[in-house]
Amino acid sequence: MFSTLLDLFLQRSVDSKSLAERQKQQMARSLPKQKSISGVHQVLVVASGKGGVGKSTTAVNLALGLIANDPSKSVGLLDADVYGPSIPKLMNLKGNPELSDSTTLIHMSMGFLVEDAAPIVWRGLMVMSAIEKLLRQVDWGSLDYLVVDMPPGTGDVQLSITQNIPIAGAVIVSTPQDVALLDARRGAEMFRKVNVPVLGLVQNMSIFQCPNCNHQTHIFGSDGARQLADTLGVQFLGDVPLHLNIRESSDRGRPVVVSSPDSPEAAAYRSLASAVVQRLQEVSG
């Protein structure tokens, strides 16, 4: 009797694995074939599990940090946050996208195509069509890096991008707060499932320094993202402080890497950019 039950259990286990393998093969056949963007050498995606953790500000300053560290590099910035595009505000850009005056940074955003206060009420197919146009109907020229500011979460946009173009790596942004880290973990696991290398985690708003007395406070907790990186077995890419200069420069449309290049805040983003380039070399090498 025991032998019969064991045989039945093992058979069901084999059948379950076979079914899972067939489903995986069917999904692979149904996915679109990845096609590189003409002229773009490497695509980096900046993502977060939830909103409000400073992902877009990080994406902008990362892109500018890549240029600041090596002015010979050409960098593009794509705002793929379809429902909440913020790159035009962060870069003080309106109307048609164009080259920035002070850098070789090329920008593109849904924010250029809709009114500032207009809600974008689209379903999945419309979103995927818009992403396809942003990726393939923009003259990106010749780029060393295309930095993509992804929407928060794990939805249609993320899947559409990762399934359609080869991604060199993903940068996950989180605050040290527990609730943000839970979502950051989901984001990292999603990229792993779609075979996108997770370059590492950025701990944003890591520490606040009072501008009057210089007292430092860990408002959102300390070292949460560093500990999560260790748990996931990925690189910890660095800390970015919660600083008034970052907020004010972002609101003015003059990112801190450009407006205050000698500040400690700009140095944090340049250090992040260096860590990302090093990880890219490790992953591709």
TrEMBL record:
Keywords: 4Fe-4S, ATP-binding, Iron, Iron-sulfur, Metal-binding, Mitochondrion, Nucleotide-binding, Transit peptide. One of its GO terms (molecular function) is ATP binding. The keyword Metal-binding applies. It is found in: Mitochondrion. The keyword Phosphoprotein does not apply. Gene3D superfamilies: P-loop containing nucleotide triphosphate hydrolases (3.40.50.300). It comes from the Eukaryota. Its main location: mitochondrion. GO terms for cellular component: mitochondrial matrix. Its cofactor is [4Fe-4S] cluster. Iron-sulfur cluster transfer protein involved in the assembly of the mitochondrial membrane respiratory chain NADH dehydrogenase (Complex I). May deliver one or more Fe-S clusters to complex I subunits. Belongs to the Mrp/NBP35 ATP-binding proteins family. HAMAP family: Mrp_NBP35 (MF_02040). This is Iron-sulfur cluster transfer protein NUBPL.
